[in-house]
# Entry
Amino acid sequence: MATKKYWKGLEELNNSPEFVQKAQSEFAEQIPVEKFLGNENQETSGTNRRDFLKFLGFSVTAASLAACETPVNKAIPYVVKPEEITPGVANWYASTYYDGSDYASIIVKTREGRPIKVEGNDFSKVSMGGTNARVQASVLSLYDSSRLTGPTANGAAATWENVDKEIGGKLAAVAAKGGAIRILSSSIISPSTKAVIAEFTAKYPTTKHVMYDAVSYSGIAKANAGTFGQEVIPSYNFAKANVIVSIAADFLANWISPIEFSKQYAKTRKVSKDHAEMSKHIQFESNLSLTGANADERIPVKVSEQGKVAVNLYNAVAKIVGGSALPSSALACDAAIAKAAKELAENKGKSLVVSGSNDVNVQAVVNGINQMLDNYGKTIDLENPTYTHQGDDAAFADLVAEMAAGKVGAIITYNTNPVYTAPASVKFADAYNKVGLRISFADRADETASLAQYICPDSHYLESWNDFNPKKAHYSLAQPTITPLFAQPRHEGTRQAQDTLLKWAGNTTDYLTYIQKNWMEKVYPMQGKYMMFTEFWNHSLHNGAIEVGKGEGEVLATPVADSTAVIAPVAVKPVKVEKSADVTPEVVTVVAKISLNDAAQKINAVKAGAMELALYEKVGLGNGNQANNPWLQELPDPISKITWDNYVTMAPAQMAKEGYLMMERQDREASVVTVTVNGKTIKLPVVPQPGQAEGTVGIALGYGREKAGSLSEKTGVIGQNAFPFVQVVNGTMMYGALEVSVANANETTEIAGTQIHHTLMGREIVKETNLESYKKNPKSGNHDEMLVTHSGVKKASTVDLWDEFDRPGHSWGMTIDLNSCIGCGSCVVSCTAENNVAVVGKDQVMKTREMHWLRIDRYYSSDMTKEVAKEEGIGAIDMYLEMENPAAANPKVVFQPIMCQHCNHAPCENVCPVLATNHSSDGLNQMTYNRCVGTRYCANNCPFKVRRFNWFNYNGNSDFAFNPTQDDLGRMVLNPDVVVRSRGVMEKCSMCVQRIQEGKLEAKKSEAPLKDGAIKTACQQSCPTNAIYFGDLNDENSEIAKLRKEEAEGRNYFILEEIGIKPTVSYLTKVRNCEDTIEDGRKSAGHSEAKSEKEHA
Amino acid sequence: MDTMCNKPRKQILAIISFLFLSFIFSANNVSAADGAKIFKQNCAVCHSLGTNKLTGPGLAGIATRAPGDEWLKKWIKNSDALRKSGDAYAVKVYNDNNQVPMSAFEFLSDEELTSLIEYIKAPPVETPKGNSGATGDLAAAVPAEQGMNPLALLIGVIVFLIVIVAVLRGVRFSLKNLQNEKQGLPLEEAVGPWTELKSWMSVNKTKTGLVILFIVGGLSSAGWYALKGIGIYEGYHPTQPIAFNHKLHAGDNAIDCQYCHSTVEKSKTASIPSVNVCMNCHKGISQGPTTGTAEIAKIYEAAGWDPDKGAYTKPERPIQWVKVHNLPDFVFFSHQQHVKVGKQDCANCHGDLKTMTTAQQVKPLTMAWCIECHNKTEVPGMKDNPYYESLHKKLAEKYKDQPITVAKMGGIECAKCHY
# Structure
C-alpha cells in the first residue's frame, strides 16, 4: 500500500452513495436510439415499432443499393508539381510561435502543402525543443473559419485598394492637423516589425508605439530599473538552481517563459542511482497552481500575504548571510520561511527566488533577496535580458487617459484585445470610441476590432514571414508554411500587418525583402561564422533559431558604464550594464532608485481582506487569445480537471461552512456564486479546491470571450471574463483583488470534469519516495508486488498464467518518469493533433465520454499514512476513513499520464468477440477500427479505462458542430496517416503506430538497422520536460533498454503488475525532495490483507 | 566455387557477345525502315513530319523547299558550318527560325542520311484509329458483353416453357373433353392450373420438396455470391479523361514505369504523374500512332500549351483522372514498402500494363488477396538488408527449413496496415 493515500477527487474522498453508483455504472447510458430515429421525445412521437421496421427496411435496402454502385474516386495530380513536394511525404519547415506571450521556436510538419502538426525545434537555445499546449494547438487556429477573409470598413467587406486609399487619406488628415496617432500592440520582439513601425513613424511623426500585455510583467522591469537602472526582465536559469523559492510565480505554466523554464526545471529533477541529487522547490501561493502542484513543499498563503512573505524571507536570509532587516510583520508561515531561507543561504549562488507579483515593491524586495544570495550572473542573467514581455502598464494607462480626453486622432491596434483584457476601472471601450480613426489588425472581429472602423486582418503566423529576438543575442525566423488560406481570387485576402504598415508608410518593398535587408544590416554583422549573407540567411532559415554574438566569437556590445546602484539597506554588487546593441531598440529610462525600506513599508501596509481573489491563467487558454480553439477548451485543467469552463476555486472547508454544494466535479451540480469586486459582478460556479488558501478564491482569465469566433455560437459563451477584476495598483496591473465579496446566487449549474471515471480502490498506482530514502535505497517506495501462490509468496512479475510470446523483431516500450512530468498537458493536445482525436463537447464530457487517448491523472495525497496509524494505534477502518478525510488543506499532488499500457497479456484482447483488438509481434496492443463492432466489452475489461468509444458520429452529427472535422477548413488539420473514426467504434492509444511504421520504413529503405530515437511518439516529442521515453526494448543500446536495466532494481515499476497483465508502459517512482519519512519494505502479506479490508470497508 | 562457376559463364558470355556483334555488323545495310528509326531517335524531338512547327519547322514539303538532297545532308551534319560558309538558303532558314541553330549530327553516315531523307520525303500515312476512350487493344482483355445476357436467356426459356405447358394443357383439356363427349362421359370441369398444381403437389410430396429445396438453395447461393461481391471491383475499367495508352508507352516504347510513377520508391503512393512529366516528351510528340492528335491535344489543354506558338500561354487545367485502384480509407498501403524494400514487380498487383491501354483493376484488392500473398511470399530484399539481419537470424532459427514468409515476419498483423 502506498505510504500516501491518493484520491482522485472529493467525491471519491467522501465516497457518497451517488458516487459509488456512478463509479460502478460507467456505461450506464442507454443506446441513443432516438438519435437515429430523429425524434428526441420517444413517447410522444408517432415513431413506433412499425415505423422502426420501415426505417430499418429502407435503410437496409438503401445501403445495399448504394454498396452495389462502384464509387468514382477522382485523382487529380498537379499540373506542374513543385520540386520539393512528394505526395504522401511530409515536409518540415522551421518557424517560430510567438503570440505576444509564449515564445517557442518550432518545426512545422506539412503534408501536400498544409501544416498539420507543430513540434519543438531542438536548435533553439531558448525553447530548447519544448512546446506547450497552446503552441501545439496553434495549428488548428490557422484553420479557423471565424477569421476574416478580407478587410472590412465600418463592418462591411471592402477591398484592400479602397481601404488603403481611405486610411491613407485619413491618416494624412490626422497628421496634417498634428493629431496624435497611436499604435497599440502586445509585446513585439520582432526587430524588423519594430523597424517597420519606425518607418511608419517617420512618415507620420505624431505616431507613438505603446506595448501592452494582457498579463503584464512590467513590475519586474520597473523593479530592475529601480535596482539596476535597467528596465528589463532578466533571463532566469532554473537548471542551475539547487533551491527554488517561488512566491506565486507559476513558472511551469505561464510565468514569462514557461517552456524554457520547464526544460530547465526538469533538468534538476532527473535522478538516478549515480546522480541522486535534485533541486528543492518551495512554493508560497494562494491558488493551487501547476507549479505549486510540482513543488516539494507548498505553503498556502493569502494574496495579501504574498508580499509579506517576500519581506520576511528577505529578513530571514539577511539574518543568516548578515544584512540589516526590513520592517516586517509576523506571518503564520514564518517557520516555513525560515526553513526556506536556510536552504537558500546554504546554496548561495545556486538558488533562485522568483515572485509572480506585478508589484514593483515586491519585485524590488525579491531582487534584494537574490542579490544577498549572490544569484545575479549565476541563476539570473541581467546581461542577457528576455524581451518577450515588454508591456508597459504605465504607458498603457497614459494612452487610455489621452484617448479619453479626445487627444488621440487615430489608433491602430495590433495583436491585442484591450476591450476584453483591460481592467474594468480603465474603461478602455469608452476611451477607444472617442478616437476618430480606429484601425485594427485583428484576424477576426473580436471585442476590440468590432468597435474599429477598419479591420485590416493580419495573416496567421503560419502564413507569414517574421523575425524574433526573444532574448539578447537569440534570433529566430518564421516562414510561411502555407499560401494564405484567404487570398485572391476567392477572397479579398488577409495581409501581414507589417506589409500593411509598410504600404501606409509608402514603402513598396515586401516584408520578406525588408527582413532580409534588416538582417543583412544588423544581425549578419553580429556573427563571424558565415562569409556570405545568403549563406547565413539560408542557415538561419533552415535552423529556425540562431544565437549570435555569444559563443560565436564576436561581441559587438561594449560595456559603457559600471552603474553601481547602491540601495539601502543592502550594498549592491556592481552589475555590468551593456549598452544594448541589439536590433531591438532599448529605451532606457532613468527611474528613481527604490529604497527597500520604503518598499517593505508599503508592502506591510497592505490590508488583508476577508475574502481575496487571485486571478490565474490556465495552461490551455492562457490569456484567451485562442479561445476559439476547441482543442484547448476541451483540454482539462491540470489541477481541477474541468473542461469548457472557468469557475471560482475555494478551499473545501470554507465551502462547507458556506453551505455550497461539495460534489462538484464530473456530472455534478455546482453552486453558483456572484463575485463582486469594486462594483463589478460576475456569476460563476464554485468548485472546491484542496490546497486553496483559506480566505481566498481563484478565477481563471481567458474565458468569457463573446467575440472570439464561431465556437461561442455553437456552445454558448464559455465561462466568464475575469479580466475586469484586474486592479491597477501603484501604476501596475495587479492580478487579484483584496476586497472581494462572494455571495450565494442560490442557483446551480453543471460543470464537466474528466477525472472521476474510475476509482482507484486503494491500489498502488503512483509510487513515491523522498530523496533521503532514495539515496539510501534506490528502490525505496517501489516495493515489488507480491502474489500468494500454491508454492508460496512470489513476486508478481514471476507469476504468469499465460505463455510468453516471441518478440523477434522490435519490442516497443515506453517509460514515463513521474519525477519529470509536471502535468502541463502539452502531450494531450499533441496526441489530439497527431491522432485526429475528436472533440466531444461539454455535455459528452459530463457523461464521461471524452475521447482523449492520453489523459493526465492528478492524485491528491492525504496526511494519514499506515505508519502514522500504526504509531497512533488506529485501526484499519478508521485509518482508511481518516485517509479519506477531506481536511487535507494542503495536499501533495502527483501527475500521472495514462495512455493504453499495451499490456502483453491484455484483458481487452481476450474479450473481443470479433478479434478487433489483438497483439502484434512487436508488443503493440492493436486496435482495428474496421473490424470493431462496438460491443464495448474491451472498455469494460480495461483496468486503465483508456479505451474510448465513439458514441456519435462526431464528424457529421450537427450536435457536435464545434468539432474541427465538421468544418471545411478545420478538416485540413487532420493527419492523413490516421483514420478518422466513425460512430460505434472503439479507439485508443496506438503508440503512434503510424510514426513507428514510417520510422521502420525509412530504416528499411536506407538498409540500416533502426536508429534509437528515430521514432518518437507525439507525446514524447512534445513533452517540455522529456518525461517520456520510447524505444525498442530489444535493442540493447537503446536509451529505454538501458534505462529499464538501470532502474530495474530502482524506480521502474508497472501499474497493476499484480494482476498479471504485463504492461509495456512502465513508470519511474516519483522522488520528492522533502523530509517526510517514507518507510520502506512493507510486508506484502500485510498489504494484501489491508487491501481486502479496504475493499470490505 | 566461384572460379568453377565463373569460367564457363565467361565463355558463354564471350560467345554470345561475338554472335551479337556479328549480327550487328551483318545488319549494316541501311533501309528506309531505319530512316524511321533514325528520325525518331534524333529528329522527332524538334521536328514533326507534318506542317506544324515544334522547336524546328515541320518537314512536310521539304523536298520541294530545300535546294536538294546534298544540301540537306550537309545541313543535317552540321548546319552551323553550312550557314557560316555563306549558304544563302541556310542563312534564311536560320533567320526564319528565331536564329536557333540546329544541333549537328556528324555521326550519321551517308547511307543513314539517305535513308533518313527518303523517310522524311515519304513518311508512312498514319491512320488514326479513332479516340473513343477506353477501348482500343484492351477490347480483347475485357470482352464487352456480347450476345444475350444469360439471365435473360434463362428467363426467356422459362417463359417459353410455361407458355408451352399452358398451351399443351389447353390442348389436352380440349382433346379429353372431345373424347369424353364422343364416348358420352361427363365433361371434365375446367380446373385452374393453380388448383391442378396444388393437387399434383399434394400427391407428389417428395418431388415438390426436392424442387422447393432446389429453388431455395439456388436463390440462397446466388444471393450469397452476390453479397460477397459487394465492394470488390475486380475488372473495374473506368473511362479516363485521356485514353492514356499504357501498351504504347510502357510496352512498345519500353518506358520504365517509374519514369512517370516516380514516387513509388519514395512515398506510400506511386503517384499519377503531373502534366509537366507528360510534357517532357509530348512537347515534341504531338501525334500518336493510335489516336493521332486527339488525346495528346488534351494534355496540351491541361498544361496550357499552345503547340502552334510553342509556348505555355493558356490557363492550366488539371486532369481529373479516375482512380482505378481504390483501397478503403482505413487501409494504409505503402508502395515503397512493397517496391523498394520488398522488391515486388508492379505487375504482381496491377497486372501486365504493357498489354493494356487505359489501366484496369485486374486483381480483387481484397484483404484475403493481400493475406494470401503475405502468407506465401518470402521477402526478396530481406536477406541482404541489414535492417532485417537480426530478425532474419532469429526467424531462421525458429522456422528451420520453412520459408520465412511476410506473415512470419509479422506482415499479417492488423496494425501493419490499419491504424
About this structure: Chain B has 18 helices and three strands. Residues 246 and 357 of chain B are 5 Å apart (CA to CA).
